[in-house]
Specification:
423 residues; alpha+beta; 13 helices; elongated
């Protein structure tokens, strides 16, 4: 016997299936879901339906996809192929490792040894997947210069606005600006407040570009190998590539799960209202691909993973997302259900839902039609003439008002007498 139920957990739905000694749980975090619809196409039993993504992008509080837990097969395909990790999948209380499923998306953001642990990548990350843990600040060091006069210089040609000095010492201040897809640099300038500086010269050593020079006295303190460190949460990462684009040290590299292309239907773009609508911009909360330019709505395709949420959100069907390749890793074994997973990939690329399987098959039989030949008797001319004469008399009577009124009032016998008298 199979039991199924649904539980609401704050911003999540938990779908549970109990069968014999096995309990399967599918947890759907609809706050992380952007309505891309990949799970809708991947589902082999049509248990997932897309909601009103346009209205949700504009603020409607409801899940972007609806799951029919009675139809759900609890196979884990939606969990395996969701690029934004909006699903979690458990069997008997233990979270299933995606790498142990038949197929799963290949996506990863690498941090290389060239990383200087600066602030740029974590400042631009759209999903806060990158964090910077600070191990040491200037204020943590008790040794201070007293009564020293000095000067701080920043070589603007060398400085790449990495922000290391500003997060180390309060004497430096980064001028922050809005991060946009067409300009992802988080800073516009660096300022110096020498009233907060004791000219200890430590900033000279932490600057990776040797862009800072200080007239002062080096305090007697040994800096550690790292004053801060960058960490990447792969579960939160949308693999947009912002970090790779902004990094001046080529220390970040992103492997995207899908290749494709974005197209706008230019002939219909007069319908677009990027200020009043902006659904494409709002729905793209993980990758920040869309922006408003002087020519209207625009996109920076290098940050796109072709999830399709913008296409679903556009009320005028102005956006076309084409998926060319979905990168996956697979198990070596070949179980009977492998084909279902491969077909799911095909549907994701073609953006087609699984065909409904009929519960009944109707047996059809061809019926043989036998034509029978029947002789038609010849028309009796004499009888035909008599009938024509009688019909002619009735037509003549019906032209007279008194006989028509007799019929309308139900006095058919009056018509009969007329036929006898006038016939």
């Amino acid at each position: 016997m199979i039991e199924r139920e649904v539980e609401m957990l704050e911003d999540k739905f938990k779908y549970v299936q109990k069968a014999k000694d096995e309990i399967r749980e599918l947890v759907y975090d609809f706050k992380r879901c952007n309505g891309c619809g990949i799970c809708v196409y991947a589902c082999p039993v049509n248990a997932i339906e897309l909601g009103p993504v346009h209205d949700i992008a504009l603020g409607l509080e409801m899940p972007p996809v609806i799951i029919d837990h009675l139809k759900c097969a609890y196979c884990g395909i939606c969990y395996a192929f969701c690029p934004f990790n909006a699903f979690d999948f458990y069997i008997n209380g233990e979270k299933v490792d995606k790498s142990k499923l038949m197929l799963s998306l290949v996506m990863y953001t690498y941090k290389y040894d060239e990383c200087k642990e600066c602030t740029l990548c974590y400042k631009v990350c759209p999903t806060n997947a990158i964090t910077r843990k600070i191990y040491l600040r200037r204020e943590d060091i008790p040794i201070k210069n007293e009564g020293i006069k000095g000067k701080v210089y920043v070589d603007r040609d060398k400085c790449n606005l990495c922000g290391i000095c500003a997060e180390f010492c309060e004497a430096f201040k980064m001028v922050e600006k809005e991060v946009k897809p067409n300009d992802i640099m988080p800073y516009s300038d660096i300022l110096i407040d020498e009233t907060k500086c004791d000219y200890c010269k430590l900033c000279e050593e932490i600057c990776p570009e040797e862009a800072i020079k200080v007239e002062g006295k080096r305090i007697d303190y040994k800096l550690p190998d790292k004053i801060a460190e960058i960490f990447i949460d792969q579960d939160l990462c949308s693999h947009c590539g912002y970090c790779e684009e902004v990094c001046p040290y080529n220390a970040a590299h992103t492997i995207k799960p899908i290749e494709g292309e974005i197209k706008l239907y230019m002939a219909r773009m007069y319908r677009c209202d990027p200020i009043g609508c902006a659904a494409c911009i709002k729905v793209c909360k993980h990758n920040k691909v869309w922006f408003v330019s002087k020519d209207g709505v625009d996109f920076n395709e290098k940050f796109c993973i072709y999830c399709g949420a913008c296409e679903n959100a556009c009320p005028y069907d102005l956006i076309k997302i084409r998926r060319k390749v979905v990168y996956t890793k697979e198990l070596a074994e070949n179980p009977p259900w492998r084909e279902a997973w491969e077909k799911a990939l095909e549907r994701i690329i073609r953006k087609e839902k699984s065909k409904e399987v009929s519960k009944f098959e109707l047996e059809t039989k061809e019926i043989e039609v036998v034509e029978e030949e029947k002789e038609i008797e010849p028309i009796n001319v004499e009888i035909l003439k008599v009938l024509e004469q009688k019909i002619s008399k009735i037509e003549t009577l019906l032209r007279k008002p008194k006989y028509r009124r007799a019929i309308e009032s139900g006095k058919v016998d009056a018509l009969a007498r007329g036929v006898e008298v006038e016939g």
